[in-house]
Amino acid sequence: MNTTQKLLGGKFSLEMQTYGSSGEPLLFIHGAGGLMPVEPFLEELGKTFKVYAPQFPGYAESTGNEHIDDIADAVLFFHELMDELKIPTANIVGHSMGGMLAAEVAAFDVHRAKKLVLIAPAGFWIDEVPIPDLFAAQLTEIAPMLFHDPNSPAAQMMTAIPSDFKALETMYVERVKRFATASKFLWPIPDRGLKKRAYRIQAPTLLLWGDDDKLIPPVYAKEFTSRIKNCKLELIKNAGHMVMYEQQEALVSAIRKFLKG
Amino acid sequence: MKFTWFHLMPYRFLPEDFKEKYRSVWVDIPRDLYDPKVGHRLYNDYLDQLEYADSMGFDGLGVNEHHQNAYGLMPSPNIMAAALTRRTRNANLVVLGNSIALYNPPIRVAEEFAMLDVISGGRLIAGFPVGTSMDTNFCYGEVPATIREKYYEAHDLILKAWKAKDVFSFNGKYTKLRYVNLWPKPLQQPHPPIWIPGGGSVETYDFCADHDYQYSFLSYFGYIAGKKVADGYWEVMAKKNKELNPYSLGFAQVVAVAETDEQAEKDYAAHMDYFYNRCLHVYNGFADAPGYRTVKTIKAGVLGQVGDQAALRREGLKWKDFIDQGYVIAGSPKTVRERLREAMKSLNCGHLMILQQIGSMPPELVRKSTSLFATEVMPHMRDLWSNFEDRWSPKRDLPQADFAMPGPVYFDKRETNGTVRASASASAEVRSAK
Questions:
Q1: pTM to 2 decimals?
Q2: DSSP 3-state helix, strand, coil percentages of chain A (rounded to 5)?
Q3: ipTM for the complex?
């Protein structure tokens, strides 16, 4: 279900996707690309949890992006949102840039995350393993960067170019809006100091990583496992960076098992 | 009508198969294509050419800032302008300009521009571009989403620093300074004329109109394609009830003059091809970082100058197409006189930024084209816009008696490795080829 969530007297207005009506609350923080209009893997998680998935300010219909400049602003935004939703503590799941933000949310205030799931999270930079420049990538280069199988229907769908000019313009403008917002955390290198703060994370943490992630290769997992006290890594077979679209079942069952366990 | 002789300072020796072999002339061009020994010749050739333009009566000498770019070898145009302060006397120094959001703190620009203005005796025109996405976002790492905000803040700080009577503090979002106290201050008071080079962002029209700055459209696509941007600018000026003074618009145009139209093609066609097909070969992914252009500008449909769309428009163009489509104004003095007058009138433009060294063009051709333009075209265009006042050029009111002359040039044999430089012009010819 899509609703509009206001925060701080309208300073932020958020397009909020919710899935499921009962179960423990689960906050999902999306990656740089944002949410699709409906997310099948969240629908699936909604069968077990009450899932809240906001489009970040600057994405889709969500506004208030001008009030967020850096990690501290973004973290306090999520703290405020959780208070407003009356879920001051929740399971927090984040993908890619959203994984970086989820880790920051949990590090700034150790009481926010009951459990933490980071799917191929950003937040670090290893000189020897540079992350490809997604911002400079052309549509034709994106699928091989993000998917284990760039020819799969999911990959093709996500990187399709609309033939109608109006639809193309809309897609282009929306992509610019989303990536411009993401650039505040990721440009030019996605390191905003998580390495100084990750030690604060208290919540049991599950790292999920596609074994064929070409955007943020799984070798980045050690940056998290070496800093977070209670953290384990699970590789998902035959998946690239967009794990949820390539191996939905394996991903959902790993999250369920971890959060329920 | 006023004329600024503008140099991009390209690397003239990119390989034949550059376009096929490499993805971009800008940002990640391989380092091994640059030979500093060649670079030594080029910089000195190019300074000679600017000095020559001064001697031929051009109103301004133009330089600009690019980074990691083989067609624009001036990461710091201020260094070039500094060299010119000492070896030119008449022309204004048009530094178009410094990308002020890149300097930390931005008063560095206020200081260097003040230095240039003082050394040159009040000849500086100060340009404040946002800078291209390639330069600012990809090469200098600025976050695309905030670069414009940072730019406006830097502008406010620089202007305040130039105008302030006393020491002040500045509490900006991007720059915080407890003591701002500019030494030296510019010779032109309160500050040099300000020109804003733009590539078609609609916000820049408003910014120029609101501050009474000159807007310089630095296009490589010529006056026909440039008309859309010029019209957009004048529309904003009209809407804001500003004077439609042609001197408040600058326009860059590639111009090449020869004895006849046929000779022009023979002399210059290969160099145009080098410029448009090798120099402007920029990887599409670098053309426009997400957030660099505002949604308003994107929706206004102003196309970029580099990247796939731009390359597509240039695909397969030959000399005749470049001429017909206005990319280049070239030919005999008569042809150039007629077309250029028509072009400047259609744009309502009073400041021409003339590009006469283009692509791989060697010094002897640059000199010929420049000389023909200065003697057989420029004088015939001076009457254009004579009923308007140019409020965007230095006043040049420093009394002659106060104007400092450089001391005599003296090189001894040891310092120049055995060769005595007779004069700048003679050595330019010697240095011409690789």
A1: 0.92
A2: 40, 20, 40
A3: 0.91
